[in-house]
User: Fold this.
Amino acid sequence: MNTLLIGRLNTHFLEKFGDRPLLVFSPGRINIIGEHTDYNNGFVFPAAIDKGIVAASQKSEVKVSKVIALDLNEAFEFSLQNIHPIKNGNWKNYVLGVIAEIQKTGRQLGNFNLIFGGDIPKGAGLSSSAALENSIVFSLNILFDLDLTKNEMIHISQLAEHNYVGVKCGIMDQYASMYGQKNKGMLLDCKTLVATQIPINFTNHELLLINTNVKHSLAESAYNNRREVCENVAALLNIDSLRDATEINLNSIRDQISEEDFQKPLYVIQENNRVQNAFQALKKGDIATLGNLIYESHHGLENQYMVSCDELNFLVNQAKKHPQVIGSRMMGGGFGGCTLNIIEKTFVHTFKEKMLEEFNKNFHTTCSFYTVELSEGTHVIQQ
Assistant:
């Protein structure tokens, strides 16, 4: 956890408001395998990480609430009696959305001051939005004794994103950020919200994220389009979601849909199977099989679901050239962001040098590297 960030928030809050704040840490997340399966009620394999959002908060006696985004040096005052989305509100809508969803439950909030900051790299696909939402709902739950369960809190976070930000996200990001356990990943069933935690110790390997530092503009419209295709195919199959589909089911309607619209749900069905196989491989300590499944996942994201991009494909193809990298794939919504790599610890330095050189040669820009540790979920660090 970032002690410098915690110190900055503590100091800033004391200077600004004169109170010792409640401090809450809410982590970002990685997803080892299981991409675009969560909103299809499928299986995912995420883990909370040691980078995240820290929120400093306290009740206020004045008639408005104030939230400060420390990293952006932006402040926002509002009345709890007049909560609504703001056009081009960016981070403010995440805050307002959480407040609105709490108010819908009939619980009473009082005015508060809150300052947040984070160390999640921007645009890396590590779910800074879910970390922010969770940090706010978790803080307000404590400040105002709202008696919300963790499950209620993650649904408030998810609905805030749906209704105030306009992104119809699944539940994985909020769940992983809230329920993460140190040095563990989780097999999460997004239909039942039952998760099985499993220790992750790669021994001689480690997780390395490589950020393309690009975000292609297709991302949001493409995400909504793919969700729509999946829902339409589920309706054709007369099932609630693709979670309940098999390849045999899907083949029965192949002549009713385009080839492109066939490949997308086929990817989802196959990815659900890969997630469960990856969990079994990890239980046995078989990281070679896990690595192969991760490569297969990327192939499906690139060629069937079509959410990858040249930069991501380049990084994965370069990784394949090195036997010390046992698995690599794009992670997150797609069209930019990071690849996740499982790599021999002794090869990390050499690999970084090679990737920097090759990436720069091909795209005339630089990529960034992050090593992450698996972290505890959203929790209080100072009360």
Summary: The longest strand covers residues 46-59. The chain has two domains: 3-199+375-382, 205-371. Residues 158 and 171 are 6 Å apart (CA to CA). The mean pLDDT is 95.
